[in-house]
TrEMBL record:
Superkingdom per UniProt: Eukaryota
Source organism of this protein record: Paramecium primaurelia
Primary location: cytoplasm
Job of this protein: The proteasome is a multicatalytic proteinase complex which is characterized by its ability to cleave peptides with Arg, Phe, Tyr, Leu, and Glu adjacent to the leaving group at neutral or slightly basic pH. The proteasome has an ATP-dependent proteolytic activity.
Xref: Pfam families: Proteasome, Proteasome_A_N
Family: Belongs to the peptidase T1A family.
Keyword Transmembrane: no
PROSITE patterns assigned: PROTEASOME_ALPHA_2
Subcellular location: Cytoplasm; Nucleus
Protein name per Swiss-Prot or TrEMBL: Proteasome alpha-type subunits domain-containing protein
One record GO biological process: ubiquitin-dependent protein catabolic process
């Protein structure tokens, strides 16, 4: 086996130690709509953009952010069917942990278990890696607010702020300019909206929806959708900020 033949199986390393199928799965995530996770001083926010590719689609279909349990949410970046498979595994792991220990699984424990599941799909020639990166946001009394991202390789990392998808470069630039740990979740909404808008700035002719959820001190530390009026208001303010920045340039 030589040359491009190394990419025919996930179970085969190239001579440079690379697994091409995992890299291809990561590329699928990089070409996806943008997803963001941010920890603030009073909670954690998950945000996602969703392109409305048809006028026939109803609003709020093809969700990218879901509940795992009352205090834990998961956002999916990349191939949605792959992400939903991982989501169902996460729900099963969380339910099993709750049944066994009578307490909810922390994001640390849950991300470990889900990452092992994702990694298993990079080890055998009869399967392919998941073309999805998953974000887990949670609260528990021992560790407080947590935010993790699991990559298609099975690697998982804890973050203060993280992003994936087409607009990741724009979002990372905004992360470096602003310290979200000094903002409340409500104050951070406008900047989340700004990043999601800028993520598809070059595709202005296409219509997008914005999905946001949060876990905050103000909502009983439960994973819930951000009220639509707050999202709409944040988007309007974000558009004004972008206009001001463009005028300033």
């Amino acid at each position: 086996m030589s040359g491009s033949m190394y990419d025919l199986s996930v179970a085969t390393y190239s001579q440079e130690g690379r697994i091409y199928q995992v890299e291809y799965a990561t590329k699928a995530v990089e070409n996806s709509e943008t997803v963001i996770g941010v920890k603030c001083k009073d909670g954690v926010i998950l945000g996602a953009e969703k392109q409305k590719f048809s006028r026939l689609l109803e609003d709020n279909t093809n969700k990218r952010i879901y509940n795992i349990d009352l205090q834990t949410g998961m956002a999916l970046c990349g191939k949605l069917p792959d992400g939903r498979n991982i989501l169902q595994r996460a729900k099963a792991e969380a339910s099993q942990y709750q049944d066994m220990y009578a307490i909810p699984a922390s994001a640390h424990v849950l991300s470990d278990r889900v990452a092992q599941y994702v990694h298993a799909y990079t080890m055998y020639s009869g399967v392919r890696p998941f073309g999805s990166a998953t974000f887990i946001a949670s609260y528990n009394t021992f560790d407080g607010y947590e935010l993790y991202m699991i990559e298609p390789s099975g690697n998982k990392y804890a973050y203060h702020a993280c992003t994936h998808g087409k607009g990741r470069a724009v979002c990372k630039s905004e992360f470096e300019r602003r310290n979200f740990k000094d903002l409340t979740c409500q104050e951070a909404l406008v900047y989340i909206a700004k990043m999601l808008i800028l993520a598809h700035e070059e595709f202005k002719e296409k219509k997008y929806e914005y999905e946001m959820t949060w876990i905050t001190d103000n909502n009983g530390r439960k994973h819930q959708s951000v009220p639509q009026d707050l999202i709409n208001n944040a988007v309007q303010q974000a558009e004004q900020l972008i206009e001001q920045d463009q005028i300033g340039e």
